[in-house]
Amino acid sequence: MKRLLALLATAASVVGLTALAGPPAQAAAGCTAAYTITSQWDGGFQAGVKITNLGAPVSGWTLKFTMPNAGQKVVQGWNATWSQSGTTVQANGVDWNRTLSTGASADLGFVGSFSGSNPVPTSFSLNGVTCTGSVTDPPTDPPTDPPATGTPVAVNGQLHVCGVHLCNQYNRPVQLRGMSTHGIQWFSQCYNDASLDALAEDWKSDLLRIAMYVQEDGYETDPAGFTSRVNGLVDEAEERGMYAVIDFHTLTPGDPNFNLDRAKTFFSSVAARNADKKNVIYEIANEPNGVSWSAIKNYAEQVIPVIRAADPDAVVIVGTRGWSSLGVSDGSSETEVVNNPVNATNIMYTFHFYAASHKDNYRAAVSRAASQLPLFVTEFGTVSATGGGAVDRSSSTAWLDLLDRLQISYANWTYSDADEGSAALKPGTCNGTDYSSSGVLTESGSLLKSRISTADNFPTS
Ligand code: IDC
For the chain, which domains are there? Predict the structure, then answer.
């Protein structure tokens, strides 16, 4: 009920700048713009703008509108390049929405600040044409009528970053909860039809993170072979409606630039091969360590364009300093990222933790960072940072509650039968065929299965 009320409240705040009751069937011309305040807080707000081109097809566009209150400012936008001069706001199309055929729409948004009141902007125009056009047919939102009970990918479709959140095809924030493989060079026997069926159906996992180590007998020893194994697992995840996080698992050496050429080769290949899939997310550097944020940023700004050239609309996740601790494990903090973000859109930043080693000060950093940076916990353990030792239930629960509250997506290390506390399956499980009974689960596996298998309730409008 709470959710329904929230949705109704949101729908009521849509300001249709469309002439809904216009004259009957007339030629479509110009554009429409629908402005939605999706949330508002003291001095700040998040807004979405849906523009629909009713004129001739365009291969590039500029949206302009006017803020009625001089105190209203765009702080950070997405799905367009945003700028503001005085009260005039401008948004230019980006790679994946630059082309708009007649009747096509683009969804953009931004986080704004204001002082005093926060009125709805006026004077929307697209390529200089005022958005007053009428729509001859009732506008239909692609896609229509998804199966509410479908798989995570069927319901959510292509994901994108909106503000600090991961959003689905309805532009609504979602949290994905799932599992990471262990190193696929060591545990490929754990990823077969039965184990992946159990992960999708019994665990109701939303995602499979595919950990492809680069060193330690990984990718560097057989680039073509590992690329093909990763692609195979992307397909297995897709068949089961799960998202696939392609993890370029750099670890030692910690400077991702050591693997820059390998990363470019690998990502240009997997991005081209998987460009048309909706379930792929790219994680470009697992855990940078012993390296500055500016060096990581430099790496990201070279690898992301390679991915975008082949697969323009996929979410890319960037590792952070100090084993993806947002710098905290190096005595730094999230501010180095906030003050010097990667120059790219549709990206998120990695945060990793191991519950027995990383506690309150790390949780405080995530709580602070979550309102400023899009975060994705692509890896965490319930145990110590060695991957072994006892499950720390209270710290793990505090972490998972925090991630749920902040709607931060996560993948747990590991869905494997490694002989270490972080593994979800008991040693020897992957030699057999049973992945479903509770008897195959370790303490960590049982805790995670109970958390991941609860209903997702992904928003669909
Ligand atoms: C660990 C594995 C362990 C393996 C080791 C090799 O659990 O079996 O021998 O890698 O490098 C990370 C890394 C992840 C580690 C994990 C636990 O991303 O590769 O896996 N960990 O140490 N960061 C923090 C912890």
Answer: 31-130 (2.60.40.290), 152-452 (3.20.20.80)
